Amino acid sequence: MGPVVERPAEPGTSNAAELELLKRRAAESIDEAAERLGALSRAIWSAPELAYKEHRAHGELTRFFECEPPAASWAVQPHFGLPTAFRAEWAPPESAAGPRALQVAFLCEYDALPALGHACGHNLIAEVGVAAALGLRAALESIAAPPPVKVIVLGTPAEEDGGGKIDLIEAGAFENLDVVFMAHPSQENAAYLPDVAEHDVTVKYYGKASHAAAYPWEGVNALDAAVLAYNNLSVLRQQMKPTWRVHGIIKNGGVKPNIIPSYSELVYYFRAPSMKELQVLTKKAEDCFRAAALATGCTVDIESEAHDYYNVIPNKTLCSAYTENGKKLGMEFISEDAVLNGPSGSQAAQLYTLRTAKALAMTALDVIFKPELLEGIRKEFKCKLQEEQLLNTAA
């Protein structure tokens, strides 16, 4: 443990030097735990699991907190809202009798993609969330009389498919949380990763089977409908906005070449910058699917997935605080307009993973000890949320 810092009178009254000491303690504690954190990340990486089935990763993460010294310092709910979700919570004992604690949360993702594994680096998202929480806790423990704060880690499964966070939101897991932090791997540093609204559909065509050589005229070809739908969407791309994305596969195209397919199935993802634009894109795509059914004589079912993903609302106030802390750690940030992508997960990513965790923990300390910053974050969020609602309801 590092030196004990005399607690500032109340959150927000810390002078700059005291706050920098707390940030240094957070960073040091993350470095001290680097070996254990790296082992956690590698364990998740080595056994990729699909959405809602992340049992091994879930076990690794919950055991990490259950075994984190001192014993039983984290209160762990291992099946929080979903079988592979969890909640780990720590609060200074001295703050229990005080006013409602400020609740600061960090998110962990840990599901993988079929065939590709952790191509999006969700093992690193989990490591960052854990590391940042450890750093914040260590900083708060170094204060003689810490403020009323709860440090929470939420394990959020099924990000690649299904929408586990949406399940948890509906279950009330995010209620009363004041600020929630998460970092996604990228080849570059950025305070904000643009994320668009998404709608997923499964399209099923039903025709009539017949022998393709003996009496093809008796059949109604569901594969033809799928191919026409695929081509319709490809033609539609000419009139799509540059910010729209449509991608899909033919999941089922028949049984044997000499049997006219009576059933075919496609899966498509639609993405757009806002829910309003997404609705326009979805309508155009569904017209393409129905046109293929009409042309071939098939019937069609268009089934939406359980959850739509809303576009992320940026918070420049919070982004500025993160950028300021990141620069202190040597981060160089790219512009908001730059495209961020590329797989992550190698051992070389550890330096950047832990540095990101430090920046998150340091930003959380700013939120705790600068009430004016927290108020600015809340105010901007409310304004942006109202703007988004007006945009999506406008004619």
From TrEMBL:
This is Xaa-Arg dipeptidase. GO terms for biological process: proteolysis; regulation of protein metabolic process. Residues 201-293 form the Peptidase M20 dimerisation domain. Keywords: Carboxypeptidase, Hydrolase, Protease. It comes from the Eukaryota. InterPro entries: Bact_exopeptidase_dim_dom, Peptidase_M20, Peptidase_M20/M20A_hydrolases, Peptidase_M20_dimer, Xaa-Arg_dipeptidase. Belongs to the peptidase M20A family. It catalyses: N(2)-(4-aminobutanoyl)-L-arginine + H2O = 4-aminobutanoate + L-arginine; N(2)-(4-aminobutanoyl)-L-ornithine + H2O = 4-aminobutanoate + L-ornithine; beta-alanyl-L-ornithine + H2O = beta-alanine + L-ornithine; N(2)-(4-aminobutanoyl)-L-lysine + H2O = 4-aminobutanoate + L-lysine. One of its GO terms (molecular function) is carboxypeptidase activity. The lineage of its organism: Eukaryota, Metazoa, Chordata, Craniata, Vertebrata. Catalyzes the peptide bond hydrolysis in dipeptides having basic amino acids lysine, ornithine or arginine at C-terminus. Postulated to function in a metabolite repair mechanism by eliminating alternate dipeptide by-products formed during carnosine synthesis.
